[in-house]
Design brief:
Elements lengths: L38 H8 L10 H8 L10 H32 L1 H7 L2 H4 L5 H4 L4 H25 L5 H13 L15 H11 L2 H8 L4 H24 L1 H6 L5 H4 L2 H24 L7 H4 L1 H16 L3 H28 L2
């Protein structure tokens, strides 16, 4: 039972043991003293700003730019980067806010977080925790969506280059990212895994095109690898959430496949990442030493699969996957800097 709220007129003993003051006269209402809710913190949790993994795309893009020989980014490039990053922040915030609203309404979040709230921290879900109302979340999602569209429109207007494919990529991402659990509800039509990876691809390759005017083979490879990162920890979340997702008809691979099939699927995704890294070097799309630079990522994937799928500690496997993605970003940036320095 929660303690009752303090009131504005309460009989309290005087210091030193003196008598308490008299009750208020009849007709004077005693209203609860409401402490201000930590609304800013709740909105930040609703936006999932602590999950920075998609936003690391800018580090990969900047490291791919041809900045050798003392060249630096010009003003249009800097403003494009800033507007694009703000657009990412706002559009992802809108998408995850809409996802929380949908999960709150259909009960899937209550089912998925109710069994392991201590591990996954219920505070990450402000609607479940009661720190925000559904109306609060809806207002926030709509405002974030409008801000994201405005920021990306600004990025397109300021970009030093505007190849048609990059403009269409930005427009498609701006349209589809918020519709994971809202509008088209892409995550409820068997497209969840593709969506998680495609968002990562959209945050790298189109921006690279806006800054350079072209799409290099190496940029395409690194965009693909970057997109696999969120997917390779998202599938572990889905494995943990099978019961709740099945109850609301969300057809993730983990729900549709048997336990063995899901294990094979996740293992195949992990192997695909390694295969792309090696193939890029063999085909000359990346330096010959590219697989060596990304060897820590391969090691992290082996540990993730062993812990999460072989030993069955799925949420720990998810955590290792998040760390593996961040290791990937560091390795890609280091490889790009080294490549630029040696060419």
């Amino acid at each position: 039972m929660q303690p009752s709220a303090p009131t504005s007129a309460v009989a309290v003993a005087e210091p030193g043991g003196g008598p308490a003051p008299a009750d208020p006269p009849p007709g004077i209402a005693c209203h609860p003293v409401r402490r201000p809710r930590p609304r800013l913190a709740a909105h930040l949790r609703l936006a999932k700003l602590g999950m920075v993994d998609y936003y690391l795309s800018l580090l990969v893009v900047v490291s791919l730019l041809p900045l050798t020989g003392g060249r630096t980014l010009d003003a249009p490039s800097w403003t494009t980067l800033a507007a694009f990053l703000l657009g990412e922040l706002c559009l992802v915030a809108a998408a995850v806010a809409y996802d929380d609203i949908t999960g709150y309404r259909d009960g899937s979040d209550a089912a998925n977080y109710g069994t392991d709230a201590a591990v996954r921290r219920l505070a990450r879900k402000p609607l479940l925790a009661g720190t925000l109302t559904e109306a609060d979340a809806l207002r926030f999602a709509r405002a974030a969506l409008a801000a994201g569209v405005l920021c990306w429109t600004t990025a397109l207007a300021l970009a030093p280059h505007r190849p048609l494919w990059a403009v269409l990529g930005v427009a498609a991402a701006g349209l589809l990212v918020p519709q994971y659990s809202w509008g088209l509800r892409l995550g409820y039509h068997g497209l969840q895994e593709v969506f998680l990876a495609a968002v990562g691809w959209a945050f790298v390759l189109p921006l690279h095109g806006l800054l350079t005017g072209r799409a290099t083979a190496l940029a395409a490879v690194e965009a693909f690898l970057f997109g696999l990162g969120p997917l390779l920890f998202g599938v572990y979340s889905n494995t943990n959430d099978i019961a709740g997702d099945r109850a609301v008809g969300r057809p993730t691979a983990a729900c549709l496949l048997s336990h063995r099939g899901n294990t094979v699927f996740i293992g195949a995704l992990s192997a695909l990442e390694s295969a792309v890294i090696v193939t890029a070097a063999v085909l000359g799309l990346a330096p010959w030493w590219f697989p060596l630079a990304l060897l820590p990522v391969t090691g992290a994937r082996v540990a993730q699969f062993t812990v999460g799928m072989v030993r069955g500690d799925v949420l720990r496997g998810r955590l290792i996957g998040i760390r593996a993605h961040r290791i990937l970003v560091v390795a890609l940036v280091a490889a790009n800097v080294l490549r630029a320095a040696t060419t």
